[in-house]
Model the fold of this input.
Amino acid sequence: MADYEKHAYDVVVIGAGGSGLRAAIAAHEAGARTAVICKSLLGKAHTVMAEGGIAAAMGNLYPDDNWQVHFRDTMRGGKLLNHWRMAELHAKEAPERVWELEQWGALFDRTPDGLISQRDFGGHRYARLAHVGDRTGLEMIRTLQQRTVSLGIDVYMECTVTDLLKDGDRVAGVFAYWRESGRFIVFETPTVILATGGIGKSWKVTSNSWEYTGDGHALALRAGATLVNMEFVQFHPTGMVWPPSVRGLLVTESVRGDGGVLRNSQGRRFMYDYIPDFFKAETSDSEAEGDRWYTDKVNNRRPAELLPRDEVARAINNEIKEGRGSPHGGVFLDIASRRSPEYIKKRLPSMYHQFMELAEVDITKEPMEIGPTCHYVMGGVEVDPDSAASIVTGLYAAGEVAGGMHGSNRLGGNSLSDLLVFGRRAGMHAAEFASGLSSARPQIAAADVEAAAAAALEPFEREGGENAYSIHQSLQQVMQDLVGIIRREPEMQEALATINDLRAKTAHLSVEGHRQYNPGWHLALDLRNMLLVSESVARAALERKESRGGHTRDDYPMTDNDYWGKRNVIVEADRDDHVRVRQQPLPVPPPELAALLEEQH
Amino acid sequence: MAYDLKLRIWRGDASGGELVDYSVPVDEGEVVLDAVHHVQAMASGDLAVRWNCKAGKCGSCSAEVNGRPRLMCLARLSTFPPGEPITITPLRTFPVIRDLVTDVSFNYVKAAQVPAFTPSKDQPQAPFRMQQVDVERSQEFRKCIECFLCQNTCHVIRDHEDNKEAFAGPRSFIRYAELEMHPNDGLDRRRLVQEERGLGMCNITKCCTEVCPESIKITDNAIIPMKERVVDVKYDPVRFLSRRGRTKPG
Ligand SMILES: Cc1cc2nc3c(=O)[nH]c(=O)nc-3n(C[C@H](O)[C@H](O)[C@H](O)COP(=O)(O)OP(=O)(O)OC[C@H]3O[C@@H](n4cnc5c(N)ncnc54)[C@H](O)[C@@H]3O)c2cc1C
Ligand code: SF4
Ligand code: SF4
Ligand code: FES
Done:
């Protein structure tokens, strides 16, 4: 018999980033007994690292901005593969959600009129991102954390979920272990909200932390939920490239939003060579026009550096490939020659700090060396837009772990707003569902708990197997090399074969030490999730035979609107991690919304 | 550029422990946290350590490096004397869980005791109008990444375990200062911070400020002004009563 502690709740939220905390607040306010579980300490989730801002059409600087324009930008940025209803809700509700943060004590930077200031980002027609210098995520998570604590919501920190428990086809509970002691803990609950964030730790060059092992994606698959858009992985154009130890670390898009430009080794602003037809009408065609746009957005069009991220990342990739890169294999991002040192330090304090401390580069004097880094997964749990419910009764998903909102490519700033809008919706709907249940609550089967405990302890049973760290490194190398920015069928087949081998090795790995705070053991358990999610990405990417957003096929370089523009790739799996993919029609927006997408300016 | 680095890392748990020697290959530009990760991957998979962002943004990787409390992810190896081993020990003020991981729940308890932000009667409902100059003072304190290095360093609790009950610590004091200086907060927490949170026990040694990785001027900009404002509330009840209706003084 496994030894474990047991708790009962109406709503259990897995994840304490922006989406998880916002969901918990909503569920609590709706009267549900609510718990939040997270792998790290409270306040350390990935959301803390977000830099640039929260996109919301408040119109504080440009009164012409409104939800319709934000909706249009989001859909076009996602190359029209977004779920239109999610994009609609997001654009409509984001301003309210930002003001709510202010109501709870957040202190955003201000306009001269004393309103929340908004900054420019790629793909957004107007300056739209509410921000605090370049530490917006910190402000957001601290505000939500302080709200959560003041409401007295139970938080289980340094506690990792390894299994969802079901009663028939309904969610019944959650199985987890305490990192500190390695002891088990079981939550009885009719509703679970996945808010676990992303999957980037399966790539070698990434802006993501150790937490991003795709646990929520994997838990959802094993519980019978579906994933959508998994082939779309965002490589952020600007990650650090030097020194090696910081390779992949994010350089915020605000550097470009605030005037920074990209140059190759010949000093050329090469983005002007890469403006695609799809964005010609809204992008400046000369450097001079682009430069004027920063101060006059009415009469000028966006600089080419502020094209959506997929476009910029591909362009950088190509410059490097064709030999016009910087000494350490990136390109140059230059703000030093374009803005005053005072301006740079005021607007980008943590970037200034980061380069000074970690690379000994003074960004007010020299250009930065940057290159693409794995940053965000557009794909995630397929949900009902209004309620954030998955197809499994009682299972919800919000934030980066949910799919559909961003289509094939996410615009900067649209994640933080997504967390708030859909986190709140998930919390409200889960609470409502739980309160509607009569006495017939789902029951946890003792045998399922035993099985979950046995699976978690398995790595201790063996000796002499490979260690989790080396398997992880192999996986990162494979995904980096074979399922990266540019993809080809034979390479992805090779990746799938390697993933299979690594899975076999994982089944035989061994860990040293005991259960108390043992990172080797934790990684061993995370690996199973990383392998499942990596396979999902590779299989979805093989299925989609076109190029679009965060999915570029060398063997199918064109965007195929007639066929693939109307289809989603759906991933499913069984409890034994066998992955299947299928195609499904893309939901079609109603005519009044479709009309917004056509409109040019 | 790769070379072998000697490390001495404290290994153990609540029942005791010792410094253990390691030697790992390290690369140009690496930081102490990288070296710790190499130890995990190559020598000792169960070495316990906290980290998240590896960029000085999350405040997870606090430890004492050669006796100095700091973030391991910002401690560049090139800044240490070559050839000499680097010693890494857990934060001293908090109970050890295992290896470099300590029980920092003290800080979360103190945070839970802070009465939340409460909008003033003048502007009860967001969106608020607030000027940049007025939000800037509190913004400085909201840069805090909760690394708890200041809490670890402050001698009031570092050297006197039994003060922990009565003393909330510098991280907490900047939170009270932040709310006190928030242009649209309507609660007065000055008596509370003085009488129940131990502000009076601070004797302004500034050690907390010295270790803050965010360069927050904890003592000069938060603690000293708070002490002054506490004096206001104590000895000038008339001024206190009349000023709460207006926006707060600087
Ligand atoms: C460096 C960087 C900068 C960014 N800048 C911006 C920006 O300026 N604007 C923007 O809109 N977006 C930005 N993003 C993206 C955005 O920050 C993330 O997409 C977003 O914060 C994800 O939030 P989340 O709530 O979905 O998850 P997270 O904040 O990542 O939280 C996930 C939570 O789930 C928990 N968890 C995961 N697995 C388990 C498990 N098995 N058991 C228990 N708990 C678990 C984790 O502990 C954590 O608490 C940035 C991302 C990065 C990496
Ligand atoms: S200034 Fe006060 S809070 Fe800071 S270390 Fe000294 S006694 Fe502690
Ligand atoms: S005030 Fe500075 S030292 Fe103290 S917890 Fe915050 S960031 Fe760390
Ligand atoms: S790992 Fe985040 S501060 Fe060091």
